[in-house]
Amino acid sequence: MPIIRQPHYDLTQRPFLVIWEATQACDLACRHCRASSQPHRHPEELTSDEARHLIDQVEAFGHPRPLFIITGGDPFKREDLFDLSAYASEKGLMPAVSPSGTPLLNRENLGHLKESGTRVISLSLDGSTPEFHDDFRRVPGSYQLTLDGWRAAQELGIKVQVNSTVTGHNLDDLPRLLELVREMGAMTWSVFFLVPTGRGQADDMISPQDHEAVMNFLYEASHMVSLKTTEGHHYKRVVLQRQALEERGLPPEDHLPLNHTYYRLRDGLAQVGRAPAVPAPQERMRRSPLHINAGDGFVFVSHRGEIYPSGYLPLAAGSVREAPLAEVYRESQIFRSLRDRSKLEGRCGRCEFNRVCGGSRSRAFAFTGNPLAEDPSCMYEPGSFPFGLETTPETRVAS
């Protein structure tokens, strides 16, 4: 398995992932919600016919077809969800759906979802206990509803990805959350790093030093569960660094800026994971990171049809109501700029890892108003890793 996975086709022509925000309606009120969701559907949402036209546009990218994820809000708030899932399945898109942990996440709805062709769902879980999770979601009972829905989905043969957003609120709970993900058998643990947009606030973010700590914790956890990161692009740099150190038999604490948070997380991993905190060099990750970024293999379509490089990067490049999705993805100025790593500024522009990382363009925009600025959550100083020249994309990434 390559250390950093990269689609074998041209990402300038076809995205790996298309996410459609089917609605912003949701019965939760999560502290970090990107969409600032409300209980009721917006009157300007894409209609059923417009949604089918969007699905046609995704299918028009050709083979291999992009992954197509229906998210929200809560997609179960749309009465036509099952019809649209079936239509996407007929087009060969194999849709995945991201429902919320509410009473709508029940066996009956999940059964209809499976009948309509959905084989994968993602559920958000932000704590290992109801106290952690329900406080985050601001609705009592959401934790239990999420776990009950998770079990029901598994019994129906639907695969489950678990999404967790890291904030100062749940930072030290990550090892216990990992244990729960592992014990219940998630397909993938997707760890989100907060971008201050929507209801997410900069004060809720962890520090750059703690980002580094969590990335290294996740590297070690990746030997135990399949995981990936969202808006944590420098995880790919950490993977390359840790692999380089392991090949030389060198301990990470001697060569990486690891703080007390990392040691707490590592100790927690050793306790709850029943595995050595530092894996043996011959062990391999079950899932290697994927090389995509905002506008570069990734496109987001809002509930009203606006086309964005990412759901966390509010720079609309067009609308599916006015132009073909493929045309906007391939030709719009913002998408083309984001795919040109030579345009990156600050430390991201100078970094030897920028072709596999590139930093969070969404977080750069949230803090500076410039999507090409350096990622403020990353503390790495370009050129400071002693083995950097041997871990460049040319030598370590399979195309």
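That was protein one. Protein two is written in the same sequence-then-structure order:
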Amino acid sequence: MNEHEQYMADFMTVFKTLDRWGPGSDVDSLRALTALPIAPQKIIDIGCGKGFSTLLLARETDADITAVDNEQSALDDLAHKLADTQLDRRVTLQCASMTALPNEKSTFDLIWSEAAAYIMGFSKALLEWKPLLNDTGYMVISDLVWLTDSPGQAVTEFWSQEYPDMVTVSTRLRHIANAGLTLIDHFTISDQAWHDYYIPLKQRIKQLKPTMSDSTALADIEREISVYENYLGEFGYEMFIMKK
């Protein structure tokens, strides 16, 4: 196993027992859903992970939903949850990369993606996913942004390595306009959404540290937790609701 493979194996060891793979909450997701002026009938949830947003969309709408992630184990976990709640009949699971989605153009009236678009870059995601929407479709995408024009040096250095494309909300609004999309609403997700993600993650790191003390992945996650604990408020996730 080479260095990269070991890193990814350690990373998955950390996250495989955790329910949330990124910050988020049902309250924030529902706020975004209710901001839409339509009742969506065909939804694609891109980068769904273990499916918190997928399950909410299945509960709160009558739509047919395609849930996409490139990690099969996450989709397997979601499949069990859907079966347990009898929501599986309206949800199709799709193991695919968000950068090469096999879905046909003009298929969906809602694209949903929470805490995932950063993987390919927000602006690129807008442009590449937009053709999947029908003529009156919508997007709901959350993205990590600066909430201040003058963040501290330590947090700037950290995110310049982890997410070089990170910009302010005002810059993201320009990117939305440049992509030919109309902004409907936007808001910063709650602190509770971060706590629900990081508290179990911190506990998991503590559990694994005695047997994985040399893991680079664990060290990187610990640094991220430290940044969250010391600088949340200078950065955050912004939820953007857009119309084609």
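Residues 3-243 form a domain with the Rossmann fold fold (CATH 3.40.50.150). Keep this in mind for the problem set.
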